[in-house]
Each structure stands twice: as C-alpha cells, then as structure tokens.
Amino acid sequence: MAEFKRPDGRKPDEMREIKAKIGIIPNADGSAMFSTGDTIAIAAVYGPKKMHPQHKQNPEKGVLRCTYTMNSFSVTERIRPGPSRRSTEISKIIEWALEPVLMLKKYPGMVIDVYVNIIQADAGTRCAGINAASMALAHAGLPMKNLVSSIAIGKLDKQLVVDVNKAEEDWEEGEGATDIPISMTGDEKITHLQLDGKISKEQLKEVIELARKSCKKIIEIQRKTLKEIEK
Amino acid sequence: MSRKIVVPGESIVKGENYLPGEGTEKRGEEITALRYGLEEESNGLVKVIPLSGVYSPRRGNVVIGKVEDITFNGWVIDIGTAQRAFLPLTEVPRYVNKDALEEVMEIGDMAVVKIWSINKRGIDLSIKSRGLGKIEEGIIIKVNPNKVPRIIGKEGSMIKIIKEETGCNITVGQNGFIWIRGNKIEEELLAKKAIFFVSEKSFIEGLTDELKKWFEKEK
User: Fold this and answer.
1) Could you give the CA distance from residue A175 to residue A191 in angstroms, rounded to a whole number?
2) β-strands B85-88, B122-126: how paired?
3) Nearest C-alpha neighbor of A92 from the set A178, A182, A192, A20
4) CA A69/CA B14 separation, integer angstroms
5) Would you give the distance in Å from CA A30 to the centre of its chain?
C-alpha cells in the first residue's frame, strides 16, 4: 500500500507516547494514571468493602462497580459535569472489560469500586480508562488472573491505524473513520470489542492482529510500571 | 535472597517441583502470580506477599476495633473489614449482666480483640486472652496495614526498640491500628512519631539501625 500520512506524522502501527504511574491517590486502596499522547486517565480503586445499598448485594459473588467521568475541562468545549448517557455506557463497558480477570467469587456481598476520571481527552478515553483501571486493581492487591490492556484501532478511509486521536476520529475523506476499541488480557484473550462504523470480515481479522501486537506493548509498560517500587 | 515484585498473570517459576501457595495458581507447568506483591519461595512452596490493598482478616490475628453496635448477645465491632465482626457474650472472660451489656463496652469504645474464626457469615472475635479487651487510656493511631510486619520487625525487633526508647506499652493490631500507652503524653507522642517514621521509611534496608540513629537525634 502507498505511503499513508497520518495527521500527526505517525506510522500506521505507531502508538502515541505512553506514560503510566501507580499510587497517585494516597486515600485510595489502589490507584493509577495512564496517558497516551494528550489523553490522560486516572483510576482509583476502593474495596472490597460492604455493598451499600444492601439490596444490591450479591450473595454469590462480589460486584464490580465502575464509574467513568469526564472532567468538564477535559475537552475543548466545556462539557456539563455529572453523569450522561455516554458516561453511564462507558462505565458499564469498563466493568465488562475488567470483570473476566477478577476473581469476584471470593467477595460475596461486597463491592469493588473503581472510579475512572478523564482529565484530558483526545480520543481513546475508554481505552486509557481501562488501562488505568486494570493497573489500579492490581495495585489494590486484588487477585486477578491477568492484567487487561486496551487499544483503539481506527480505519481511516481504507487504512488501518493504531491508537487514533481526535483529529483522526473526525476523518471525513473516502469511507470516513471507523473506531474499534479492543481490550485484551495478558494471555491475548479478548474481553471487550466495540465497533463504530463499517468494516469487512477480512479487515476485522487484521484489526485484531494489530490490537494483539499493541496490547502486548501496553501490558509490558503496565508491568514495568507496577514493578518500579514506589518512592 | 533477593525477592522480586510480581504482577498478576506473570509466571513465577516453571517445573513440577513447586507448589502454588497464597496469591498464586498453577497453570500447566508454570506457577502464576494472581496478585501484585513480592514473590517468596520456601521448600518448594511459592507465594506472593501483598504490598498494598485492604486488610484481609486471618484467624488468630490480634486487631483493634471500634464497637459499632450492641445486640442481645454480644457486640458488633468494626475492625476495618467488609465482613461483619462479632464478639459474642460467651467470649468475654467475666460475668456479664445480660441486660446491661453496655456496662462492659459501649458503642464507640475501642477494644483489642482476637479473630477467633472466619466463616461465610462473618468474623467471630474473642477477648479471652491476656492483653485483650476494652481500651481505657492512651492513644490509637492508624497506619497502612501492609506496613504492620515492618513496624513489628523480625521477631518483634523493631517494636521492641520503640518500646524501650519511649517507655511506652504498644499493641499493634494487624489491621493497622496501633495502641500506645505511656506514663507521659510526650512519650506517647514520641512513640507515635517513631512509628510513622518506620512506616514511611519501610522500604529501606537496615531500618533498625536507622531507627536507633533517629532516636538519638530526637532526644
């Protein structure tokens, strides 16, 4: 394929610069920051603690409760603070992406609270949120089968690119932009896959292959960050 | 012996000669970590020592808690766990008037208790040993429960230094609550400062010597 130019000059399979840190919120039982380029997400984990209200308790297994919020100053045009249709949906997505690795059977009647906060947004916020939350859960000392990493693959016209930013998300030439966020565990099992747009079956396979490579890199960064002893 | 930090999903050792201990799981040939912490291997048993997270109760732990509620046959005590901890009347080593449980402990009182058993319904406590019971005087401070082993030190070496240097009596609860009682308030405050010093510097090697130096400077 001919040389494809991305708006910020990256190669198609090149991610933005990643920064990660753990233990950023002293009051939380576990916390982490994850940023790719201009997208910054922080996550705080509280618990396991007693589920309140009581009628939401599950006597069979613990409950994972995620809350995704975007700060009003995180985007160029101020957004109204507080829950919205979009944020409730993403909260649920984060729960589903992380639940398969958590061993909630050990915590009947309890809840693990995960708060994901986007302090700066430049597309791929749910992926940054999942990456941060996965690290925060590990930092909180919860038993997990594996870490989870997440990446958004984009299709700009016909070209596949990794880790889309806002400029690419608004791509209008040709077929337009398709956004495919994917989350994977450390042993390359998919826990979450979304598709916003149109894509052929063959190309979706390529997408998953790209995501697999990128998630591997992200997991490495997550592991490295967790291994650096605080202070 | 160097101990390294492991993350969930990371394989620690390979081979048939190892057994999975706490915080680990056997996956095929490998033993994999299930939680974030330090790996430790002794006699083929591999386990992970947690570095962070909430206090997880264990049988036999001595903890410090606050009386939350009084029922007809005992006290509900908040020991910082999600499960309900209950101190039944029968586990109190003295005569108690069943109509006046508050004569022994009232809501809001602090007590040193021992975890007697852990079951599905909750935690059962006991005060039937020496050094357990209601706290009458002194100060109580809270530290990160993961730092408790460091504060106690190897065979109690660290806490022994603090006790000797300050002349205070100190009870360390496994849930991170520490009870200090001395003759003078100054001594208690010095002990408190020393404990915070240890918990902040917990990652330093040779901390006992460091603590001795710190005491010399403080005096």
Assistant:
1) 28
2) parallel
3) A192
4) 42
5) 16
d(CA B40, CA B198): 23
pLDDT digits (tens, 9 = 90+) for A34-65: 999 999 999 999 989 989 899 999 999 999 99
The reply to whether A191 touches chain B by the CB within 8 Å rule is no
Which tokens belong to A133? 């939350």
**Which residues, in sequence order, are bridge partners of residue B46?**
B20, B41
Residue for token pair 């997550």: A222
CA distance A63 to chain B (A): 13
CATH code, residues B62-134: 2.40.50.140
A166-184: per-residue pLDDT in tens? Answer: 999 988 888 889 999 999 9
Number of domains in chain A: 1
Domain-embedded: residue A161: yes
Contacting residues for B147 by C-beta, under 8 A, at least 6 apart:
B176, B198, B199, B202
Q: Kind and range of the H or E element at B189?
A: helix B185-200
Is A97 in a helix, a strand, or coil? helix
A195 phi, psi to nearest 5 deg: -140, 120
Among B34, B36, B83, the residue with its CB nearest the CB of A226 is B36
Interatomic CA distance for residues B28 and A96, integer angstroms: 27
Contact state of B203 with A231 under an 8 Å Cβ cutoff: yes
Sequence-distant (6+) residues with CB within 8 A of A54 are none
Give the chain A residue whose CA is nearest to the CA of B80: A49
The CATH code of domain B5-50 reads 2.40.50.100
CB contact at 8 A, A67 and A113: yes
For chain A, residues with pLDDT lower than 50 are 231
Strand order in the sheet with A148-156: A159-162, A148-156, A177-185, A190-193
Q: Answer yes or no: are the C-beta atoms of A182 and A164 closer than 8 Å.
A: no
On chain A, the residues whose CB falls within 8 A of the CB of B50 are 141
Rg (alpha carbons) of chain A, rounded to whole number = 18
Q: How many CB atoms lie within 10 A of CB A160?
A: 20
Bond into A48 cis (ω within 30): yes
Which residue spans within B72-193 are E strands per DSSP?
Answer: 74-78, 85-88, 110-119, 122-126, 133-134, 139-142, 169-172, 177-181
- A124 occurs within a structural domain: yes
> Reduced to 3 states, what is the DSSP secondary structure of residue A152?
strand
Return the domain boundaries, chain B. 5-50, 62-134, 139-218
Q: What is the pLDDT of residue A1?
A: 52
- Within 77-106 of A, beta carbons closer than 8 Å to B belong to 101, 103
